[in-house]
Backbone:
């Protein structure tokens, strides 16, 4: 069961962005597995993508099409990642784009494809191509919840959030959905994210927002330390709200929009961790007083990826030596262990590099038994602070991934 994550259903519509869904029976027939976003001509689109060298054909095409034309359609299939499929996989993804382009009278470069699911298998084109017209037949602006269900794979529940606020006296809306539960690690963390606002935003500015906010959210989560082949996060701005185009990052309008978007990015990223495969705990790893952000993240990721730390979290075992050892092997140069303090929430477990005098096993175990906790690591060597979010590692995680293709 997800860790303190509720299903969100009451989305605000984003004028200028419609959604169509259908089921092609790629891997299941209980919910949609094809989702199409249809954007107004005035819309701008930005994206960030996986850094995996074996990135899937849809990722390569998305990057190329995003740079070449004004995006009008995004099409997502689940159940098959179309990764590790060579030239044939590229042809399949292009055929999907061409089908939509022909159906809707746009150029092929105005269509962005996305796939998620099993790696190394060709797409069942005999199922997908006949289903695309069904998804395109009746797009609506109020089926974000249905879309959140349509992009799921091993997720136990859909993930989404929506909010409204004001800029220059006008109501601005943001809605977003994400999927992901396993193969989650920064660069990017298997996940997809689709976030939209009706604010008019210049494309360069929108890309800046997507990159910066994605780096602080989706690139700060880890479930199992595996970077996927298909990760993508898209930010869309329909431009239908009655305010001036946001084209200056120094403007108060930009700052307001960025602050509200940050909340949505963070919620959707955290939702992925909370629904991590087999997860029973949501864990923040907060590393402070480092020489620079790179150093802080290196320490945080080492702890987050440690199987020994993660299994101790699952067992609610206050085996703090595992955390200490992970910090020590993080590769930080010239580490002065006598300066380091480590906490479980507010319980000090390591003080000046050794077991804290005040620490008791009872206090540590009480924190470790919580469904949410923070591991705080104070390095005592600078002013840089960073936080990443992770889960424990349970028996169920092994079972889910052992049975994934069956």
Residues:
């Amino acid at each position: 069961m997800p860790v303190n994550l509720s299903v969100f259903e009451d989305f605000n519509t984003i004028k200028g962005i419609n959604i169509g869904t259908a089921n092609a029976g790629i891997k299941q027939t209980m919910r949609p597995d094809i989702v199409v976003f249809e954007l107004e001509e005035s819309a701008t689109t930005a994206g960030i993508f996986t850094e995996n060298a074996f990135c899937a054909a849809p990722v390569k095409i998305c990057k190329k099409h995003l740079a070449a034309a004004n995006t009008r359609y995004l099409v997502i299939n689940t159940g098959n990642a179309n990764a590790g499929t060579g030239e044939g996989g590229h042809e399949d993804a292009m055929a999907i784009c061409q089908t939509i382009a022909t159906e809707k009278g746009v150029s092929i470069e105005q269509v962005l494809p996305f796939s998620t699911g099993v790696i190394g298998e060709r797409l069942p084109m005999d199922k997908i191509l006949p289903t695309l017209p069904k998804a395109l037949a009746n797009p609506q602006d109020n089926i974000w919840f249905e879309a959140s269900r349509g992009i799921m794979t091993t997720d136990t529940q859909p993930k989404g959030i929506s909010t409204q606020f004001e800029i220059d006296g006008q109501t601005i809306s943001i809605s977003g959905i994400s999927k992901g539960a396993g193969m989650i690690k920064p660069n990017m963390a298997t996940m997809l994210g689709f976030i939209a606002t009706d604010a008019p935003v210049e494309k360069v500015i929108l890309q800046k927002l997507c990159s910066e906010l994605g780096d602080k959210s989706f690139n700060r989560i880890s479930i199992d330390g595996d970077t996927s082949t298909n990760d993508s996060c898209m930010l869309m701005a329909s431009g239908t709200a009655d305010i001036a185009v946001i084209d200056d990052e120094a403007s108060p309008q930009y700052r307001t929009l960025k602050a509200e978007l940050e909340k949505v990015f963070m919620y959707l990223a955290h939702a992925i961790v909370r629904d991590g495969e087999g997860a029973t705990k949501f864990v923040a790893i907060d590393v402070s007083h480092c020489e620079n952000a790179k150093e802080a993240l290196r320490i945080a990721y080492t702890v987050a990826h440690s199987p020994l730390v993660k299994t101790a979290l699952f067992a609610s075992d206050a085996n703090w030596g595992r955390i200490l050892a992970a910090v020590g092997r993080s590769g930080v140069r010239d580490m002065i262990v006598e300066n380091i303090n480590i906490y479980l929430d507010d319980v000090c477990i390591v003080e000046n590099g050794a077991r804290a005098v005040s620490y008791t096993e009872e206090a540590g175990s009480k924190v470790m038994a919580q469904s949410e906790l923070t591991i705080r690591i104070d390095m005592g060597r600078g002013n840089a602070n960073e936080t990443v979010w992770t889960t424990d590692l349970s028996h169920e995680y092994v079972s889910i991934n052992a049975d994934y293709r069956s």
Remarks:
- The chain has two domains: 17-274, 282-402.
- Residues 252-274 form the longest helix (23 residues).
- The mean pLDDT is 93.
